[in-house]
Specification:
The complex is a heterodimer. Chain A is mostly helical. Chain A is built from 4 helices and no strands. Chain B has a two-stranded antiparallel sheet. Classes of the chains: A mainly alpha, B mainly alpha.
Chain lengths: 118, 249
């Protein structure tokens, strides 16, 4: 067994062993840190098969519907409260559709977010 | 033919109390939420108890999920987003484990109910609002006023931005709920084809191999969806939290 070779004088070896181990750990950490950025660059430039592309696909499906639904609900509620049917529904359904399109454009990553010029 | 919707039925296990005429019961949904939470707890405790330098299997799972969520937050919301790490990790692990447990036959899928997903999405929504106003005061409202827009169409844009903001919890919750619901119904329908065709004799048994193969493939797909939906939920949480941290961009 590996333990036999360092079985005697264990107390003395302990600290030396731990120091060597932490030195090796530090070296490993450095080497990993050197390797990390290159791996990230690769992921960014090459064809992407990471989960975020699939995730974006799943996002697109509901964003538009959600905008239209919110617009329709607000329009319907305003019509009921203020008695201005059908104008609330017409205006807010259109606004909701616009909001849905904005959502989709943002989800697709064409525009970063509110206020970003691209 | 087995009813494909039956699997989502909530049944009462123990009645706990009655508040203002409404029964508060421990249901199968609550049971599986408890199983989910205990499962996550057991996984993370078992994963962190060994503290080995070279991680074993369980420790690897725990460390991978930690690093995965930490990387997701840092890449979308930056270093400041890390103060929301507990929230995002909790959401991610809860949804992931609940989805995966739901794939086991005869279990109940907690996330296939919109009550659950909507409460999680609203939790994120209100966290964003409360933290945004707490951190930036009324400056948080800059989120709805993009700069570089001509003044005469600004009111319209603000309306659209507000609607877009309000639609977030809906798309956030409906996506998870609809995917889980649709996936489980599809699985059930194809699985019932197997038994129906199997009852038709020799030809039927041969024909039943087709839906059976499809059920196997769909189960693999559902496993992917279970992970992806948890990931989408977590990453959207990060994106929304990023708006609360930096509303003006």
């Amino acid at each position: 067994m590996a333990d036999d070779s360092r079985g005697d004088g264990k107390n003395g070896d302990r600290s030396a062993e731990e120091a060597a181990l932490s030195a090796r750990l530090a070296r490993l950490g450095e080497r990993l840190a050197q390797r990390e950025p290159s791996r990230h660059e690769e992921a960014a430039s090459g064809p992407r098969s990471d989960p975020s592309a699939l995730a974006r696909g799943f996002r697109l499906s509901t964003e538009l519907v959600a905008g239209v639904l919110v617009g329709a609900f607000i329009g319907w509620a305003l019509d009921r409260w203020l008695g201005i049917s059908p104008w609330g529904m017409i205006v807010f359904l259109l606004l909701g559709f616009a909001a849905g399109v904005v959502n989709v454009i943002r989800a697709a990553g064409v525009s970063g977010g509110p206020g970003t010029k691209r | 033919m087995a009813d494909p919707i039956h699997q989502f039925e909530i049944s009462k296990i123990v009645k706990l109390a009655e508040v203002a005429g409404h029964e508060i019961a421990f249901t199968n949904s609550a049971l599986f939420m408890a199983i989910t939470v205990v499962g996550i707890w057991a996984l993370l405790v078992a994963g962190s108890s060994a503290r080995a330098l070279v991680p074993g299997r369980i420790q690897s799972i725990a460390e991978l999920s930690y690093e995965f969520v930490a990387n997701t937050i840092q890449s979308t919301a930056g270093q400041e987003g890390m103060k929301f790490f507990p929230l995002v990790l909790t959401l991610f692990m809860f949804i992931l484990v609940a989805n995966v447990i739901g794939l086991v036959p005869y279990t109940f899928t907690v996330t296939s109910h919109i009550v659950i997903t909507a409460s999680l999405a609203l939790l994120v929504f209100f966290t964003v609002i409360v933290y945004g106003f707490y951190k930036h005061g009324l400056g948080f409202l800059r989120l709805f006023v993009p700069h570089g827009i001509p003044i005469y169409i600004l009111p319209l844009i603000v309306f659209i931005e507000v609607l877009s903001f309000l639609s977030r919890p809906i798309s956030h919750s409906v996506r998870l709920f609809a995917n889980m619901l649709a996936g489980h119904i599809t699985l059930k329908v194809f699985a019932s084809f197997v038994t129906l065709l199997g009852g038709l004799g020799a030809v039927g048994v041969l024909g039943a191999a087709l839906p059976l193969a499809l059920v196997v493939a769909l189960t693999a797909l559902e496993l992917l969806v279970a992970f992806l939906q948890a990931y989408v939920f977590a990453i959207l949480t990060c994106i929304y939290l990023n708006d609360a941290i930096h509303p003006g961009h």
